[in-house]
């Protein structure tokens, strides 16, 4: 950024550049977009030493700033995560291009042929925290769906994001896509995000990815249209008829496999009929893995209190911990479980473990969430696991997009009408 340019001017200039090339990107042939994604996939592996070196600077600074281990885990890149990003890019390249798809069409009595055609959104602004893989996922999905993107990552991942964006820009340029299609607001200043939220003349839609505080701030302050994503106060309900071996595996995986992400379970609900048998066995395994249990009164009656089993407060039922902490409540019925989830959940992901088909059907029908699982871990709410390739986030709202947002969710549509000289009378 030139010395004479303010943060606001820098943001506006990068958004303007993205807007200027948006018509070019919107009409890029599929093969060029796919070539660009393969180039990125190859480049991040070839230049992994450069990327990991810059990431290590962020990790070192994070430890100096005493950030939590959960946040550092989200920030960390390693060989395995680089390979996973590369594979995700290849999967997106292999997916059908949604742009130009005729969603539906019909012919009117007057001879007009009307088609509803899928088109790019335009320029997408993405504000996110910590996880540098979001930089790659966002660029890949936006480009494949014919969009330009303006990225504002968290200050804690600044060096990682700069490195990744440099690699991305060179890779797409070599494929024939303008470098201006991918912009990074490479400053730690919060004013950059604040200004981006109000650039209606350049930004078509804004997607925040991060914790509840970030998403709430964007929703309350943006003038650009926002797709709400991400906060995951997810529940696993173990029904009276559950296979307890299955339930134990699902609960453990949902909480412990990667506790720092939005689809990790934060609350366990257990039917009273099996609580005395199930809670001691699952608690033992969770506690051995370092999980702190915050239980209701009945949970505390069943489990002996110690430093790893403490009373839950009212706040715990509404908390997304993103850590090795699990709120536990014994419920009297399926009705109580559903009522608790709909009151305290964030409409992200909910799961039931049961052998009763009617209970499963009721749970799926009555729980208000973007994804509802029967006899499976909440950790599967993920674009990669759904076969969508990378995802831009998990939408918890109901308009335009819901759940994992893949390529189609990054498009809109327009009507194309073919006539033969018709005029309206």
Offer a quick outline of the entry.
Helix content is 43%, strand content 19%. It has 425 residues and is an alpha/beta fold.
Structure, described:
- With 425 residues, the protein is α/β, with parallel strands linked by helices.
- It folds into 2 domains: 7-229 and 392-418, Aldehyde Dehydrogenase, Chain A, domain 1 (3-Layer(aba) Sandwich), CATH 3.40.605.10; 234-380, Aldehyde Dehydrogenase, Chain A, domain 2 (3-Layer(aba) Sandwich), CATH 3.40.309.
- It has helices at 7-26, 30-46, 48-64, 69-75, 79-94, 133-144, 158-175, 190-196, 212-221, 244-256, 272-288, 297-302, 334-344, 357-366; strands at 102-107, 113-120, 123-128, 148-152, 182-184, 205-209, 234-238, 265-271, 292-295, 309-311, 325-331, 349-353, 371-374, 394-395, 403-404, 411-418.
- A 7-stranded parallel sheet has the order 10-9-11-8-7-12-13, sandwiched between helices.
- The longest helix is centred in the first third of the chain and has 20 residues, at 7-26.
- It is globular and about 75 Å long.
Task: Draw up the topology in text.
Elements lengths: L6 H20 L3 H17 L1 H17 L4 H7 L3 H16 L7 E6 L5 E8 L2 E6 L4 H12 L3 E5 L5 H18 L6 E3 L5 H7 L8 E5 L2 H10 L12 E5 L5 H13 L8 E7 H17 L3 E4 L1 H6 L6 E3 L13 E7 L2 H11 L4 E5 L3 H10 L4 E4 L19 E2 L7 E2 L6 E8 L7
Parallel strand pairs: 3-4, 3-6, 4-5, 7-8, 7-12, 8-11, 9-10, 9-11, 12-13
Antiparallel strand pairs: 1-2, 2-16, 14-15
Helix pairs in contact: 1-8, 2-5, 2-7, 3-7, 5-6, 10-11
């Amino acid at each position: 950024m030139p010395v004479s340019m303010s943060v606001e001017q820098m943001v506006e200039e990068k958004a303007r550049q993205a807007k200027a090339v948006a018509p070019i990107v919107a009409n890029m042939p599929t093969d060029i977009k796919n070539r660009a994604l393969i180039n990125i996939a190859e480049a991040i592996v070839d230049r992994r030493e450069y990327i990991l070196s810059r990431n290590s600077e962020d990790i070192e600074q994070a430890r100096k700033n005493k950030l939590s281990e959960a946040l550092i885990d989200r920030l960390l890149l390693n060989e395995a995560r680089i390979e996973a990003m590369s594979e995700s890019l290849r999967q997106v390249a292999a997916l059908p291009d949604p742009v130009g798809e005729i969603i539906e069409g019909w012919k009117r009595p007057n001879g007009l042929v009307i088609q509803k055609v899928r088109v790019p959104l335009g320029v997408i602004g993405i504000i996110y925290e910590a996880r540098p893989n979001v930089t790659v996922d966002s660029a890949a999905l936006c480009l494949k769906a014919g969009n330009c993107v303006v990225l504002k990552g968290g200050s804690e991942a600044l060096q990682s994001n700069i490195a990744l964006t440099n690699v991305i820009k060179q890779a797409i340029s070599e494929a024939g896509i303008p470098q201006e299609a991918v912009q990074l607001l490479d400053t730690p200043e919060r004013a950059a995000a604040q200004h981006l939220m109000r650039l209606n003349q350049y930004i078509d839609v804004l997607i925040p990815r991060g914790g509840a505080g970030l998403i709430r701030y964007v929703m309350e302050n943006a003038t650009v249209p926002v797709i709400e994503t991400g906060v995951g106060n997810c529940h696993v309900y173990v029904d009276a008829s559950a296979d307890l071996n299955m339930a134990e595996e699902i609960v453990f995986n949902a909480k412990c496999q990667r506790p720092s992400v939005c689809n990790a379970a934060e609350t366990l609900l257990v039917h009273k009929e099996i609580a005395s048998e199930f809670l001691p066995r699952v608690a033992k395994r969770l506690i051995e893995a370092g999980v702190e249990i915050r239980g209701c009164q009945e949970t505390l009656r069943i489990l002996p209190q110690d430093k790893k089993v403490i009373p839950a407060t009212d706040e715990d039922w509404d908390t997304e911990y993103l850590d090795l902490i699990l709120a536990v409540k014994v419920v009297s019925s399926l009705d109580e479980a559903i009522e608790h989830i709909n009151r305290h959940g964030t409409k992200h992901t909910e799961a039931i473990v049961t052998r009763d088909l009617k209970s499963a059907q009721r749970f799926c029908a009555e729980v208000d969430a973007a994804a509802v699982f029967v006899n499976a871990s909440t950790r599967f709410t993920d674009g990669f696991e759904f076969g969508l390739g990378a995802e831009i986030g998990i939408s918890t709202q109901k308009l335009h997009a819901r759940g994992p947002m893949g390529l189609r969710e990054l498009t809109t549509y327009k009507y194309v009408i073919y006539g033969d000289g018709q005029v309206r009378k």
